[in-house]
């Protein structure tokens, strides 16, 4: 019976290409992102940059990397954009179904287990590195999930290619008794550090503050790094005569009225027949 | 194929492993069956079976061997198609029993065979291929 899901038809061809034709396997590309999460006294702050790269090219200068899993459980994703979006979408569906069938509000730990089991089944081939944070009835939680399915629970997390730059800021600035404003500014600084010092990250800063039964999403809270200073004014205006004319062909305009009359005559003739 | 060892009450038609329709699928090539499979594909093929076996093992040790026997019987009953042959069945009770009714997997979302761009051959032709009863030999 034909089943859906992932298609493995090309695997044998790939194995043959590598063994017999000395095909160069494309190297795994780094995750060009900076994502950060911090726990403070009342909740969790998640932050992310907004650059989506396709090799050396910026594919989307202002994409959304913070995905909704539940109303008060959000997840920032680094890695292949399709993998993070679809994984978080699927787990969001599963969590909703689970909470409806059990009649209980969803827990961050449940989302963590669902994501972890899902990613482990694919042995790291689904490259989604996630920072999962949220507030449920047990309090605020923050977890990091690696593509192979391993997880950690930490008070502050950074992932992606800009994680080192962001972690440097977090290590110096974090204290366990932070308030909301301190946490927001720390995450902001960490993401900025990633944007400025890492080539794979850039664009604007997105923040997400989750507290008990409240969620605030600050989309593009900081756009100073995405405004290009030196920009040519559009549209491009070219002086007449700036391109050389190679050939000239002048066609006379045909009268439309004649053609319409011919058709009407034809229709009349057909009707008569 | 020697089916003498498989005498059951219900006599089934002989099932051939490859399709006899050489024009459609090419000459039988057993090499493709022995070629390596993607590790994730191997896992997916055995996943359902292995998980249920592990579950039943564990339940048998905790509750006694009668309990998994009862569960296997239930699963058998739910797996029976209730529609006429060749019509698709939803197997909803089987899904509820296995707990997969509240699960959403890539199998449900991507590459749905009902949405495939290739037109599926009609059911009678599929059965003829399956049983090796095609005209071309």
UniProtKB/TrEMBL annotation, chain A:
Coiled-coil stretches noted in the UniProt entry, renumbered to this chain: 243-273
Localization: Cytoplasm; Nucleus
Signal peptide: none
Any one Gene Ontology BP term: proteolysis involved in protein catabolic process
Catalytic function, reaction form: Cleavage of peptide bonds with very broad specificity
Family designation: Belongs to the peptidase T1B family.
Function: Component of the proteasome, a multicatalytic proteinase complex which is characterized by its ability to cleave peptides with Arg, Phe, Tyr, Leu, and Glu adjacent to the leaving group at neutral or slightly basic pH. The proteasome has an ATP-dependent proteolytic activity.
Protein's recorded name: Proteasome subunit beta
Lineage: Eukaryota, Metamonada, Anaeramoebidae, Anaeramoeba
TrEMBL record, chain B:
InterPro entries, alphabetized: Ump1
A single cellular component GO annotation: proteasome complex
Signal peptide (from-to): none
Keyword list, A-Z: Chaperone, Proteasome
Lineage top rank: taxon: Eukaryota
Entry's family note: Belongs to the POMP/UMP1 family.
Protein name, UniProt field: Proteasome maturation protein
Organism: Anaeramoeba flamelloides
Lineage, opening ranks: Eukaryota, Metamonada, Anaeramoebidae, Anaeramoeba
């Amino acid at each position: 019976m034909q089943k859906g899901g992932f298609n493995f038809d090309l695997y044998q061809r790939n194995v043959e290409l590598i063994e017999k034709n000395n095909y160069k396997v494309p190297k795994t590309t780094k995750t060009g992102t900076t994502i950060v999460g911090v726990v403070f006294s009342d909740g969790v702050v998640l932050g992310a940059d907004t650059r989506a790269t396709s090799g050396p090219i910026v594919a989307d200068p202002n994409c959304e990397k913070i995905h909704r899993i539940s109303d008060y459980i959000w997840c920032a994703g680094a890695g292949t954009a399709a993998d993070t979006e679809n994984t978080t979408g699927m787990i969001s569906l599963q969590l909703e179904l689970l909470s409806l069938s059990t009649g209980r509000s969803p827990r961050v730990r449940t989302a963590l287990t669902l994501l972890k089991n899902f990613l482990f089944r694919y042995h790291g081939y689904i490259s989604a590195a996630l920072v999962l944070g949220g507030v449920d009835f047990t309090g605020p939680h923050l977890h990091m999930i690696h593509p192979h399915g391993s997880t950690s629970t930490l008070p502050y997390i950074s992932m992606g290619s800009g994680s080192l730059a962001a972690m440097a800021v977090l290590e110096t600035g974090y204290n366990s008794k932070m308030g909301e404003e301190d946490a927001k500014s720390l995450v902001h600084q960490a993401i900025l550090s990633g944007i400025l010092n890492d080539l794979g990250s850039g664009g604007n800063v997105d923040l997400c503050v989750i507290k008990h039964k409240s969620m605030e999403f600050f989309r593009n809270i900081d756009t100073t790094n995405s405004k290009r200073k030196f920009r040519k004014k559009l549209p491009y205006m070219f002086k007449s005569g700036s391109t050389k004319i190679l050939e000239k062909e002048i066609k006379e305009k045909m009268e439309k009225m004649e053609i319409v009359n011919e058709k009407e005559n034809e229709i009349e003739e057909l009707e008569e027949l | 194929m020697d089916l003498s060892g498989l005498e059951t009450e219900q006599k089934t038609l002989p099932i051939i492993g490859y399709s006899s329709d050489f024009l459609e699928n090419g000459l039988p090539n057993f090499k493709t069956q022995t070629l390596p499979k993607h590790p994730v594909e191997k896992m997916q093929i055995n996943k359902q079976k292995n998980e249920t076996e592990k579950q039943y093992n564990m339940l048998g040790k905790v509750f006694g061997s009668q309990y998994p026997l009862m569960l296997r019987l239930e699963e058998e009953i739910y797996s029976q198609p209730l529609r006429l042959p060749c019509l698709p069945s939803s197997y909803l009770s089987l899904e509820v029993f296995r707990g997969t009714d509240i699960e959403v997997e890539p199998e449900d979302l991507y590459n749905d065979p009902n949405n495939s761009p290739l037109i599926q051959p009609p059911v009678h032709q599929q059965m003829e291929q399956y049983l090796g009863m095609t005209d071309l030999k």
